[in-house]
């Protein structure tokens, strides 16, 4: 490493954000890119570890110590080469990844870990600023055609890798624009859509064809799909939301998180919705049920729409602010996270179970809730018990259900006749092959709901298997 004692001399500088009072008035990105000199200084904190566990904590296996050292030395071009060697879209993960690598950082044992995510973002944005990220079409084509269904992070990563191998790749997307959950599931204040467009423009110039507004299986029949391509990769995500089946669920004013976020993102992009279809928090008492990242995104969106108040409730108890014995280093710990959306206002309630929705004239007015105790039974399974005497109500005009997703939509899966695993996801072997020859699956559709960085990893690994299936061998990385 360039400075063996850097971690002793330089303290961690956390991510910077625009002032909350300013950023809630728009949908521009909330984070502020660090000055190059500050990034190099933070890169010096990366230790000369005997075993860099950050590799173990990163689903794509980023060469973290290498590009931290290169950035510290000012060798930015070599740093982006090392970064791109394992990660197709560091401008995405540098903004959205929960940084599992940082929780595995050796420095984190007795000090604040290295700012790996911010360093990654600094490298890729420096490279874009200096014009180093240019289209690089493959010099030789194999003559093989591959269809990738879905243009989220798994589909895009898979398409990028297969195109690099020389195959002709066509990406099909049901929505009107490329990006999948990145475009319509992530608010602009976390990921401005120009970031996606910038990368997609390069992928197009490299030879990838994108066909949007195509619902494969409906608009494009599966027999024609199989006939026109040598291999098919399904990367459609896990889009069936978990519901809350309690009395009053049918009242007006209760929506799934993804329906809310998709509409909001489209409105930010200039799409108009009729008043009867509008999901708007302006002037309303909003309750977000679900304490994860998607719930936080809904909280931030409600702030920007002008909600009168926002409450986020979570079934599980409030997590610890520091590691506990059951979450030792280098495991990824379930710690209390305060996102930029939480810092903008609102209230969070923990260990709360919603028992009933009530309303007037068919419209939601309040939630009936109770505090719960969460424990384990003799078999180790989670046990949730109401605490007598803790019943309470929350007034609400708008409820957003951010309870996660259960499995992928079954339409295309059924038409292709694919087997499912016990959780309802597409069943594959270790090479990402489904039960139908020539059809592969990657991302949340195969793995279940997970992180964007895992989706990129899945897409890369699936591409290796597809290339090997088509050519008998592959020179792509297998992770």
Give the helix/strand layout:
Elements: H1 6-9, E1 16-17, H2 20-23, E2 31-32, H3 36-43, H4 54-57, H5 64-72, H6 76-84, H7 90-96, H8 100-103, H9 116-129, E3 145-149, H10 153-164, E4 168-172, H11 181-184, H12 193-205, E5 209-211, H13 222-228, E6 231-234, E7 240-241, E8 254-256, H14 257-268, E9 285-289, H15 293-305, E10 309-313, E11 347-349, E12 352-360, E13 363-376, E14 382-386, E15 392-395, E16 398-401, E17 405-407, H16 411-416, E18 439-441, H17 444-447, H18 452-471
Parallel strand pairs: 3-4, 3-6, 4-5, 6-18, 8-16, 9-10, 9-16, 10-11
Antiparallel strand pairs: 1-2, 7-17, 12-13, 13-14, 13-15
Helix pairs in contact: 3-5, 3-9, 5-6, 5-9, 6-9, 7-9, 10-18, 14-15
General description of the model:
This protein has 479 residues and is an alpha/beta fold. It folds into three domains: 6-129, Fumarate Reductase Iron-sulfur Protein, Chain B, domain 2 (Orthogonal Bundle); 145-239 and 406-471, 3-Layer(bba) Sandwich (FAD/NAD(P)-binding domain); 243-403, FAD/NAD(P)-binding domain (3-Layer(bba) Sandwich). The chain has 18 helices and 18 strands. It has a five-stranded parallel sheet, with helices on both faces. It is globular, with a radius of gyration of 23 Å. The relative contact order is 0.14.
What are the key terms here?
single chain; five-stranded parallel beta sheet; FAD/NAD(P)-binding domain; alpha/beta; Fumarate Reductase Iron-sulfur Protein, Chain B, domain 2; globular; 479 residues; 3 domains
Summarize the structure.
This protein is of the alpha/beta class and 479 residues long. 32% of the residues lie in helices and 17% in strands.
């Amino acid at each position: 490493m360039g400075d063996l004692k850097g971690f002793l001399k330089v303290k961690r500088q956390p991510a910077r954000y625009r002032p909350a009072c300013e950023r809630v008035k728009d949908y521009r990105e909330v984070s502020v890119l660090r000055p190059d000199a500050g990034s190099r200084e933070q890169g010096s904190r990366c230790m000369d570890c005997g075993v860099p566990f950050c590799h173990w904590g990163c689903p794509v296996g980023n060469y973290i110590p290498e590009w931290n050292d290169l950035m510290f030395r000012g060798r930015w071009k070599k740093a982006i080469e090392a970064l791109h060697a394992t990660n197709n879209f560091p401008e995405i993960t540098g903004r959205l990844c929960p940084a599992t690598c940082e929780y595995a950082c050796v420095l984190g044992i007795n000090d604040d870990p290295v700012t790996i995510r911010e360093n990654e973002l600094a490298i890729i944005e420096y490279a874009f600023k200096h014009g180093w990220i240019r289209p690089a079409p493959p010099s030789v084509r194999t003559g093989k055609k591959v269809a990738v269904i879905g243009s989220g992070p798994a589909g895009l990563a898979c398409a990028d890798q297969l195109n690099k191998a020389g195959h002709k790749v066509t990406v099909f997307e049901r929505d009107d624009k490329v990006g999948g959950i990145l475009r319509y599931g992530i608010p602009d204040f976390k990921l401005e859509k120009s970031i996606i467009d910038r990368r997609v423009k390069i992928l197009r110039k490299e030879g990838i064809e994108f066909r949007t507004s195509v619902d494969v299986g409906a608009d494009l029949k599966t027999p024609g799909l199989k006939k026109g391509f040598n291999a098919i990769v399904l990367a459609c995500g896990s889009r069936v939301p978990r519901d809350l089946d309690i009395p009053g669920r049918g009242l007006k004013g209760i929506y799934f998180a993804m329906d809310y976020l998709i509409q909001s993102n489209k409105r930010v992009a200039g799409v108009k919705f009729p008043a009867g279809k509008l999901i708007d928090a302006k002037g309303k008492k909003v309750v977000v049920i679900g304490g994860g990242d998607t719930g936080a995104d809904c909280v931030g969106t409600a702030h920007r729409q002008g909600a009168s108040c926002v409450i986020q409730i979570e079934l599980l108890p409030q997590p610890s602010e520091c590691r506990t014995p059951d979450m030792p280093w280098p495991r990824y710990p379930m710690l209390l996270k305060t996102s930029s959306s939480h810092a903008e206002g609102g209230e969070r309630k923990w260990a709360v179970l919603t028992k009933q929705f009530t309303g007037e004239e068919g419209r939601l007015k309040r939630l009936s809730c109770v505090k719960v105790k969460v424990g384990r039974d003799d078999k180790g399974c989670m046990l949730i018990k109401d605490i007598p005497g803790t019943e309470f109500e929350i007034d609400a005009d708008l409820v957003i259900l951010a309870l996660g997703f259960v499995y992928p939509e079954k339409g295309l899966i059924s038409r292709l006749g694919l087997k499912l695993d016990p959780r309802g996801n597409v069943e594959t072997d270790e090479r990402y092959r489904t039960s139908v020859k020539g059809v592969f699956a990657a991302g949340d559709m195969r793995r279940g709901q997970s992180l964007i960085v895992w989706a990129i990893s899945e897409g890369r690994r699936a591409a290796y298997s597809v290339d090997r299936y088509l050519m008998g061998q592959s020179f792509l990385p297998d992770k």
